[in-house]
Amino acid sequence: HDTASARIRELEESIAQHGLLSEEHKAATSRIKELEESATQHHALSEEHKAATTRIKDLEKSAAEHEVLYTQYDSASERIRELEESAAQHALLYAEHEKAAVRIKELEESAAHYDSLSTQQDAANTRIRELEESAAQHEVDMKAYESRMESLQEKASDSGNNTHALQEALDDTSKKLAEALTRASTLEQQTLELQALQEREQHERDEKEEKLIALQSQFNKAETELVNHKHRHEEALKEAHEAHASNENLKEQLHTLNESISNDASSQEVIQKLEEDVASKSGEMEALHSRIKELEGTKEDSSSEIASLKMQLEELPSFMERVTVLEKQVDDASRMGAELAEVKERMRSMHSEQDVAQLRNEIEVLRESTQSSFMQLSAAHSHKEGLEGMLSDSRTKCMKLMGDIESMKAVQKSMTEATTGLNDELNERNYKMQEQNNNLDAALKRMRQAEVEVGELRKVLLHEKDGRAAAEAKLKSMGDETVFNSGNISTEALHKAHNSKIAQIERSYEQMITAMNDESKMLREQIEMGE
Fold first, then answer.
1. Which parts form a coiled-coil structure per UniProt (predicted)?
2. Considering its fold, how many domains does the chain have in total?
3. Tens digit of pLDDT for each residue in 413-425?
4. What is the pTM of this model?
């Protein structure tokens, strides 16, 4: 009885221990459920991480495409800048060519006019020399006639027998008068020729005025072309500013993309915006390529014109030398006009009234031709000054355009520097994202390994639970003391083994949870640092 009582007490103690073990088993079961829930959450997080990884890869692809498009945009901008510089140089050379062509035409016309004037001046000089010679001869004849008349008067007063000599002298004077009449007829014919020359000069003056009107129209056309080129340059500046604004917009979108990596909905919107920007950039690149082709075509067309302009500019100094020669000829003509005035005075004292009137008419004609030549020369000088003023205006406009191009170069340089900074920042962020992806992959591997260990522990716990239920059933079914004692001993051993297993499982779970918490903290810190 005492042994039975002791055995009963032992059994009661074992039952109490079994109750404690059942409570511990319930706590372990709840702990296992919590761990299963955390594993489920971890699995969901792994799925989200996979989706985020795929999304990051898509974003990296779009960023690479954007970088390729930006490099193409840089090359296109460089090409556009080169073509704009060549177009500006071509416009300047074309304007200089137009001015040189106009100046060359004017100089050729003035040279032809001055050649005609020089021929007329030579004819007038020869005529003046002939008139001077005839006047000198007439003066000599008059002196001889006066001397003869004096001698005849002396002889007539001395003797009346010299009538025959007087008759001869009268015959000589009649011959000289006939010669004077013939000279008067020749002078009238020369007057008619001078009038014809004057009419021809008037006709040439009218033709020159028509040519001046045509040159004015060409100049207006050149001005319109210059205005059109300025408008094209302003459009290119506007396109460059729009490209700069789009680049700034892309910077802001990249900033918002880096801030919204953790949020799927907002990142989706940002990706859509980036795709739309890429599509718009592709359209802009096609437009830029078409414009580059057009500018290359215009450049090929204008190469021959530039060569001809250079040849004409090389010939310009010879025309300037001809202008100086013509100015010297005009000075000579003015000096000859003064000499004509002196000749007029001398002729007035030497010739008769009719000869003086004819000479006066000739001198008037020469004066009018000289005045017309002076007027044409002054008009040519004024036109030259106007062309020089236009050239200075075009030079100032060219300097202004060069300043605008320099500012565009500065803007392009700043855009290139900003793009380089953005590329460096993107590379750094891609490197950090790669490290985070590697860390997340390692964490996923550890979580899968923990899930495998959890499954094995579940199997062990189920096996222990089945063994414990079988032992309890065996204890209830058997009443023999020996069997009871052996069953009690085996039950206690099983309880101890079960307790040790549960403690080991709890320790492994706690270690796993602490490791996962530490790893999640580290990943969270890395993500915050990346943001």
1. 42-312, 423-460
2. 1
3. 777 777 777 778 7
4. 0.26
